[in-house]
Amino acid sequence: METINTFSQPTRQSSIAILFILGNVFRILLRQLWVLVLVVLFNPKKQIFNNFTLFFIGLAAFGAIMSIINYFNYYFYIKDGELVLEKGVFRKTKINVPLDRVQTVNFKQGILHQAFNVVAVEIDTAGSTGKEFTLQAIRKEKAEALREVISSLQSTVVSPQLSVRSFEQSENPEFTSGQHSFEQSGNPEFTSGPQSPNASSHIPHPSQTLLFQLSPLDLLKIGVSQNHFRTAGIIMVFFLSFLDDMEEAFDFDLGKKMEELLGLARDADAQHYLLIGVPFFLIISFLITLVNTSLRYFNLRLWRTESGFKMESGLFTRQEVSAQLRKIQFLRWSSSPLMRWFNMVSVRLQQAASVQVSRKLSVALPGCYEAQVDVLRAAYFPREKEYPIEQHGVNKRIIRRQFMVTGVFPVLVLLLLTYSWSDGPSWWWLLWLPISGWLSVRHHRTWNWFINDEGMRAEWGVINRKNVLLQWYKVQAVSIRQSYFFRRTKLAHLILHTAAGTVQIPYIPVEKARAIQDFLLYKVEIDQRKWM
Amino acid sequence: MIFENSQIALSELPHVEDVDFQRLSPAYRNVEYIATAIFWGMVFFGWLIFFATGYAKLPILTWVMLGLWVMFFALSMFFAGKRYEVAGYALREHDIIHKEGVYWRSVTTIPFNRMQHCEISRGPIENAFGLATLRVFTAGGSSSDLSIEGLPNEEAQRIKEFITQKISEQKEVL
Fold it and tell me: What is the DSSP letter of A421?
């Protein structure tokens, strides 16, 4: 029980944290001022140089002092069922987070962290304000103890629910005995009162089973099957914004250069350069994605913990994210053509989280096999296959929309853009239309959804196959959307909102949408389980 | 758990479509008209500047723009009036339903046991007509949040109190 008392007193971070705070301050300074720094370094007028150097030294010293003061005024502790963070020198801030609002406690370990055996801790709450707790560096054992304390105090508070959810927790008989039902949830006394040692002593030490480990070969497959075009796009944007900054700093006219380049592109010579340049560029993006994914997902391991799942990965920066089963709102899995060729699927456990951090913190497996997906599905939705499942498709009109959006519209834009070319618009774009038409027809064919008493699954997509699995009781709001034409043809989109995003079933008969809406509202309103 | 085994007669479930929707305050129509007029008035002002400075080399272009402006203005005013006709809300024992939209019509339902909190906000134009907007918040982001515009102020206060009470009842159950 020492673990509970450990954090009742205001605790500072590890002194290593000064280093990280300092690093952050300098990073922010550099990001804001790097153009200025460049100008100073390369500017021939030496007089300004001296003044600026002084200015920078002053700024750096100020930053260093602020970091140290900040460190000494940064405390966290757990009191009355709340996690409290106090910080600030001139403007003191105190953040209280009720423990049962805590969605996830994640660790991150960069090289420096590893060297000093510390971790950065990120604690997320599901508010829409995105209030997030971060600790720059605390000792690893301490961080683990903190997480344990939080989750044990949490389960004390929420235990009345566990008796309802007993069929999911049956591997843990203590929970099903219903002996916690006397506790009133949210009462702060329980976190320090005599009952809490009793309650949390029933929680065995987190037992973990390893579900999946990425082998180097798997890692390579994942790296190869990533979206390389996206990397290419990011490189382009980065390069352009870099040029833009340089232009400002050195008064260098990009527009003129581009015109020259484009003018050159008309020549046969320049076209040769393009022929070599484009594949070269693509190969570079390919390599960058490959290296990036390999570093990020190096030695990825997925564990089944007592309360949910935990994922650990990374070569230089070890990242650990966890998802409590209760907090998973829905499951998404998808596969690109290359991944299907490798028999792999990428899975995302959609957790309730504030908007800003939801992507960062959701447990996302970049690639695994059917067996792991089945384990995740069974854990999230134990009764998925228990009921007779009805299969439905969507209305044929989706073909028309898909064709307009992916075929007609882009082709029109491209034709208009190339209209002014000297040899007239490039009619080759029209070849895209039949391809897009075929894809749209396939899109309609592949759209399937299944429902049973407890939830639904949907699958769609031609190039990327996508899947969604959702339990009814996770739904927070239901919308039925109809355009003017939908009302005439009696069609509707059914939109299910959860705390971690929305799930949409498009183009279905409006009576069906209404029937699902009524049934699902009934299921949600009658359900006593905690959904997040 | 008790409900798990009881048979559900699907036809006997309460239907969202069958509820009688409450209309918004008729003054909401005026709020919409004024807001739309202010917006298009500003656009018109832009057109005036464009016209007065003689920036446009082709006079025809400015007249075409004026024509477009008249068209869009008329359409927006029409839609603004329609918005009042279409919109409605209903409270049931376990949820709140909101209907809105002229071209894209949507009916959204949020059960009380999935709400986090609700609040009332009043813009200057709404204030002048004694109206208020009721906002209902759910957890995790804004996609499922609901806002009902054009409620009479007292009505909004009443609904807010009702919902707040329902939410706290739910928290006790959990």
Answer: S
Backbone angles phi, psi at A360, to 5 degrees: -65, -35
* Nearest residue on chain B to A477, alpha-carbon basis: B110
Mean pLDDT of B111-133: 90
Q: Is A377 left (phi over 0), alpha (psi -120 to 50) or beta?
A: alpha
Look up residue A120 and give its DSSP letter: E
3-state helix, strand and coil shares in percent for chain B, rounded to the nearest 5: 55, 25, 25
A446 at B interface, C-beta within 8 A: no
Contact A350, A360 (CB under 8 A): no
Check if the beta carbon of residue A453 is closer than 8 Å to that of residue A387: yes
Q: What is the ipTM of this complex?
A: 0.89
Per-residue pLDDT at A355 exceeds 80 = no
* Tokens at A445, concatenated: 């064919």
CA A120 from chain centre, in angstroms, equals: 18
User: Looking at chain B from residue 4 to 33, which residues have their Cβ under 8 Å from any Cβ of chain A?
Assistant: 8, 10, 13-17
B52 CA: distance to closest CA in chain A (Å): 32
> What percent of chain B clears pLDDT 90, i.e. is strictly above it?
53
Is the entire prediction scored with pTM above 0.95?
A: no
pLDDT at A38 exceeding the cut of 50:
yes
B137 touches chain A (CB under 8 A): yes
Q: Which of A158-172, B14-28, B55-69 has the highest mean pLDDT?
A: B14-28
Which residues contact residue A521 at a Cβ distance below 8 angstroms, ignoring those fewer than 6 apart? A478, B16, B94, B95, B109, B111
Please provide residue A201's backbone torsions phi and psi, each rounded to the nearest 5 degrees. Answer: -70, -15
Interface with A, mutate which of B16, B107, B138 (most A CBs under 10 A): B107
Any idea what DSSP says for residue B12?
Answer: G
The tens digit of pLDDT for each residue in A201-235 reads 334 445 788 889 999 999 999 998 888 887 788 77
Q: How many CA atoms lie within 13 A of B147 on its CB side?
A: 11
Question: Residues 6 or more apart from B85 whose CB is under 8 A from it?
Answer: none
Helix (H, G, I), strand (E, B) or coil at A310: strand
Identify the pLDDT of residue A184: 34
Please give the angle made by the CA atoms of B163, B105 and B108, to the nearest 5 degrees: 25
pLDDT of residue A247: 67
The first and second tokens of residue A84, run together, are 């409290």
Edge-to-edge order in the sheet of strand A93-98? A75-79, A82-87, A93-98
Interface contact B110-A477, CB threshold 8 A: yes
Q: How many angstroms separate the CA atoms of A281 and A234, rounded?
A: 12
pLDDT digits (tens, 9 = 90+) for B41-96: 999 988 888 777 766 666 777 788 888 999 999 999 999 999 999 999 999 999 99
pLDDT of residue A170: 34
Distance from C-alpha of A472 to C-alpha of A257, rounded to nearest angstrom: 58
Among A131, A485, A511, A518, which would you mutate to test the B interface (most chain B Cβ atoms within 10 Å of its Cβ)? A518
Alpha-carbon distance values, A48 to A29, A37, A55, A146 (Å):
19, 12, 11, 51
